[in-house]
Amino acid sequence: MQGQPGRAARLFGAAATVRHNSSVPMPPISRAIYERDVATARGQLGSRRFDAAWAEGALMKVGQVVEYASEALNAVLQPRAASADQLSQREREVVALLARGYTNRQIADELVVSGRTVDGHVAHIFAKLGLSTRAQAAVWAVEHQLVPARS
């Protein structure tokens, strides 16, 4: 949901319609997570707004659903604009090693620090740059010329 309960409710409505029209049931393994997320969105929006958003999603055409979901996914996957200046020198060193594929343990060994110190640096890097995965951090490091791009 990424802080967008209205969008989530629309997508839930669209997905329910697609499942109904295609006669493809929800996999049982997904049911608990789905129910939790629906309840969270309903709680954040209130029943009336949730039901209205669900109904809007249920009326979307498949192409509209794909575009609408892609917009949300792109917003989540795109880290916020940030310059290398936002990171300390040590954080720049850590993200450069991370981008080279080093594990936290390998980074700790390379920089002669503890694993917990590296864990903290990685958490700070993610927070400062608005990232959530090592892959995003690696892309960010290449884009900001902290490591050369592979050819």
Could you characterize what this model shows?
Helices cover 72% and strands 0% of the residues. The chain is an all-alpha fold and 151 residues long. The two termini are 36 Å apart. 21% of the residues are buried.
Query: How many H/I helices?
Result: 8
Q: What is the helix/strand order?
A: HHHHHHHH
Report Rg: 20 Å
Percent in helix: over 70%
Structural class: mainly alpha
Number-wise, the strands total 0
Topology, pairings included?
Elements: H1 5-22, H2 28-45, H3 47-58, H4 62-77, H5 89-99, H6 104-111, H7 115-129, H8 134-143
Key features of this structure:
mainly alpha; 151 residues
In a nutshell, what does this entry contain?
This protein is mostly helical and 151 residues long. It is built from eight helices and no strands.
